[in-house]
Structures are given as C-alpha cells and as structure tokens.
From TrEMBL, chains A, B:
<dbReference type="InterPro" id="IPR003462">
    <property type="entry name" value="ODC_Mu_crystall"/>
</dbReference>
<dbReference type="InterPro" id="IPR023401">
    <property type="entry name" value="ODC_N"/>
</dbReference>
<protein>
    <submittedName>
        <fullName>Ornithine cyclodeaminase</fullName>
    </submittedName>
</protein>
<dbReference type="InterPro" id="IPR036291">
    <property type="entry name" value="NAD(P)-bd_dom_sf"/>
</dbReference>
<dbReference type="Pfam" id="PF02423">
    <property type="entry name" value="OCD_Mu_crystall"/>
</dbReference>
<keyword id="KW-0614">Plasmid</keyword>
Amino acid sequence: MNLPSKQAYVPFVSVDNMMKLVLQIGVERVLADLVGEIEDDFRRWPKFDKTPRVASHSDVGVIELMPTSDGETYGFKYVNGHPSNMKKGLQTVTAFGLLADVGTGYPILLTEMTILTALRTAATSAMAAKWLAPKGAKVMALIGNGAQSEFQALAFKAICGIEEIRLYDVDAQATAKCMANLEGRGITLTACKTPQEAIEGAQIITTVTADKQYATILTDNMVGAGVHINAIGGDCPGKTELHRDILLRSSIFVEYPPQTRIEGEIQQMEADHPVTELWQVITGEGQGRKSPTEVTLFDSVGFAIEDFSALRYIHGKLAETGLFEQLDMIADPDDPRDLFGMLLRSA
Amino acid sequence: MNLPSKQAYVPFVSVDNMMKLVLQIGVERVLADLVGEIEDDFRRWPKFDKTPRVASHSDVGVIELMPTSDGETYGFKYVNGHPSNMKKGLQTVTAFGLLADVGTGYPILLTEMTILTALRTAATSAMAAKWLAPKGAKVMALIGNGAQSEFQALAFKAICGIEEIRLYDVDAQATAKCMANLEGRGITLTACKTPQEAIEGAQIITTVTADKQYATILTDNMVGAGVHINAIGGDCPGKTELHRDILLRSSIFVEYPPQTRIEGEIQQMEADHPVTELWQVITGEGQGRKSPTEVTLFDSVGFAIEDFSALRYIHGKLAETGLFEQLDMIADPDDPRDLFGMLLRSA
C-alpha cells in the first residue's frame, strides 16, 4: 500500500493521554490555564461565528454538536447528556472534540473531551465567580457531588481562593466519594445532610445536579443577600434547579442568550427577562456585581467557545508533551483529483 | 494505569482500513449495497430527525456538520468543501463520520468518510437515476472528471446499466486520469473536447464540477428532450452549474427541500418553485418521470440521511471484516460519578 501523506494524519489525544497530560501539568494549573484561555476568547467574543448547539433529543437524553469558529480555526464538540446512564454504569456526559484549519478544512486535532469538558466547565464557573462573587468569599456550598463536583471544588480553590466547601447530595455515597477524592488538597470539607445545611455561611452556592427534569434544588428563602449562585445543572429544555423566585431577585449572567433562554434556568422566565452576557462583564461593556448585597447568578449551560478555548489549549500542548497518536483519518492522494486511483493502488 | 472498560473503546475505520474494506467487497458491489441501504432509509424518511446541515462559511470554503437520527441510532458527518485546496495538493472534500447509540449517547463507530462520501454520493446519484432516467439509458455524459468522477461512472454502470461514458473536463489531464482509472471496467469511454460534444447521444448528463461560484456548465440549448440530468456540483450557496432556463423546463427532484433551496441549483429559483422529494418517488407518494420526453433533474446537494445509511453499512461490516481499530475515546470510570477518581488513579 501507499503510505498516507503527512496531511492524512490527525493528532489524536486518547483518554489515557488526556489523563497523563492533566496529571503532568497538574489539575489546578490546567484549570487556571483554561480560565486564561477562556477569558482570552471571551474578550474577542464578537469575532466568533456563534450558533446555539444542534441538539437531538430523545426520551432518555440528548446528543449535541457545538460548533464555532474564530475565522482561522474551527472547532466543535460532540457531547451527550443521559441522566439514566448512571444506573447502567455509564457516564451521564461523554464528549469528544475536533479542531480544524478554516483555510483548508483539514482537521488538526481530535481529542477525548469527557475529562476536558469537566475541566472547562469548572474553569468557566470559577471564571464567572472571579468576576461576580462577593469579595473575599471563602466558603462554597457544593450541591450535587457527582462527576463534575471535584473539578468545581478545585477550580474554585485555585481561581477564587475558596477554603471551605460544604457538600450535599441526595446520595451520601456521592458526597463520600467526592470528599475522599479531595482529601489532602487544602480544602476544609464538610458533609451536610440537607441543602439548607450546606448553604449555611456560604458566599458561593454551586448547584450541579443531573436530573433531566424541573427540580427545585434551591428555594427562595434559602438564598441570602450577597450570595453568588453558580447554577450548572439546568442545561437543557425541561431541566432546571432553581425556584423562579430566586431568579426574580437575582442579577443574571449568561453565556449566549439564544441558547440559555432555551436551556438554562431562565427558560422559566419571560423571553425578554433581562440578562447580562458574561463576556461583556469581562470586556467592561457590561456591569458585574453592583453591591455586596446583590444576589448574582451565573446561569451556566456551557457554550461552544469554552470548548474551543479548551481545544486550543490542548492543541498548544501537543508538541511540548508528545501525548498524542497520529490517526489515519483523512484520505489524501498525491493528486487530489485521484481519490479513486489511491483506492486502486492500495490493493 | 487502569485499563479502560469496553465502553471506552470506539471502533475506528482508518483510511487504510476503508480502502481494504472497499477492495475486499468490490467497488461496484459496495455501490450497489449502498443504494440498497439508502433506499431503505429513504423509505422510512418521516422517521428521521432532519435538519439542514450546520455550515460555517469562510472566503475559501465551508465546514459542515450533518447530523440525523432515526430514534435508535444517531449519526453525523464532518465535511469540508474547499475548491482552492486542489492547488495546494489537498482534497477539495474531506470527511469523517460517527454513529452513536441514542439510548446512551455513546459512540459506536468513528470512520474516515472522504472515500465513503465519494461512494455514497455516487450511489445516491445512481439511485435517483434508477427511478428517474429514461428507460434503457446506455450513454452518460460525465462533465467534471475530478475526485468524484470514477465513483459516478461505476455507480451508473452497476446500478443503471450505463455502457458508454462521454467525458469532459476543463483540464484534459483530469479526463485522462479518469479514463486510465476506469480502464478494463467494461465501460466504453470517449474523451470529449467540449461539454456539447460530451452530451451528444447521452440519455443521462452528470455534472460534477467544483468551482465555488455560479458557473454555467450547461445552457438550455444543450439539453434535449427526455434527458435525465444528475447535477452534483451545485451544493453550496453561490455555487451552481446549470442555466436557469434548464430548471424552468425540468421536473426537479431533491433530497431535503429546506437544504436544497439554499444550496442547490434551485437557489436560482423562487422559494416556492415546485420540486418533488426523491423519497416520495421511492415510496410511491410522489410521481417520478411522467413521459419519455420529460427532462428530469436530480438537484443533488447531499443529505445527512445518505451519510447515515453509509455509516450503518460500514458499522454492519465491522464484525465480518475485522477492518477497524479500537480507539480509547470515551472516559468510562468504573463508578460513573467518579471521573475525577479515575483521573487520580491513572497516576
């Protein structure tokens, strides 16, 4: 057979190589790096080709494609969300992603993104809190202690200086798992029996539960003045975590309004309910927290630009770490018009 | 490190394995098999979740995602179109695709699709001609002799009984390449100096040129009564091959009207110009060719369901051929809530 040309190969980061890469650099360092990359891309937000993700819903879950482009590089993520997977011993969310050169359309990176999505989601949450949470916040409530929880905890420690985390989950085993994984990381951990107990004394409340349904994790009377709420779990139509009354007295910050109005907590509100785009807070075009008593809410659903930033980051680490394989994914005959001849000659 | 579980692996068909698979089964047999698969899926067209492809356009080309689902299996293709690539020695069109289980969202196949797209495009063209071309057609004009041309030629031979092909390309070297590749395949081949010469005596006219611009490959006076036109090259906004007058006197058949009205030859026409959906001809809900003198036109732009059929076909060949690798693409911890623990334990 003919050997494929260099163009035929796409660098591929397997799950194994992603884990090696993250451990080699260090989880908290990766999270901080990602905050830098995401902020860089949020600062040039208007440059991006943006579209709500393309979702294919079924009774049990959703499969989504999340593309974006900055005009030079194109990226997309494939991601599913299947709350029922856990009972089958499978991940609720799995993902992979790709970067391509806009000039040629040729892919330049394929990578696992289950782990990378967990990292970028936590980095985005911590970035938002960096801009919105009350000054000097040291205590966070972490409601929902599943696959995303440790990443959230470490991101808030590394980026926001959180020192104490109060954990709650409907399943005490999830809390125990999360606490065991976070042991020795310099965070004071307290297991709580109710959401009410978890939010006692917390300046930041992170909700990260996975039910695909309207659920009320937080009610209005639970949320005190000055708190920052980081709502991660309301991320598809029909899935929310917060009572409507909380939204009515919060200043709401979102990633991309056309997507958040369909998928986020604000799907409970009127279509013109006021929101501020997070990127505008970062560029100074929008206002962040206005007072120490204001309740701020980051209604996070995840947006393609965050994945793009994460993909750019991994692409930038390839040469330095060597943690990738070359995948024979692109047919690239010597004469580009001779695809059929390449096939014949491979005999 | 922990070994990934079976769920973590996604069967991957490389370019090399795709070529082996096609040669092992035989090109014409694969084309005929694909027509069967595509017809099966066209017969159950209403069952599919359909959306126009999600395109990201730039000055030099386009990158597209083409998703669809039949409720049990989800598929999508990544494909680019960059006419300027050829001058750089690169493919105009490259692609890869994925199938996933709707019930879990876990991928079940990743495959190269540059070669597979060439095959499914030719199979779709021949399938349409099987239903629309005049009875007893033996001669085809093939205008545009690039990467797709040989696949078209063999599909029309295998499925429609074409015995003679009259070739034309602005570049005589492309014609020579195509003829050399088709030698000994039982088709009478004639190189022509003009499009006019190529269509002499042809009952089927296939146009498959690649310029990303409005071009007039065929003018009205060139198209005689009773001809079937298979127009492949007009497949993105601003790119057409046929003069408007031809469209005015043709019965036009399309894949998915919302997409074809943007991308196909009919982007030149009013938004309500009458068209018939090809799947309805196959199910009998729509009428195909009405008379021997009618001009029929398949305004082909390619649709996600054809890729889905092709992906299903390749997925069905995995066990039999063994022509795939296992890709460590999905993070799958023993406890699905313990993604972070999996990362820690990989140290």
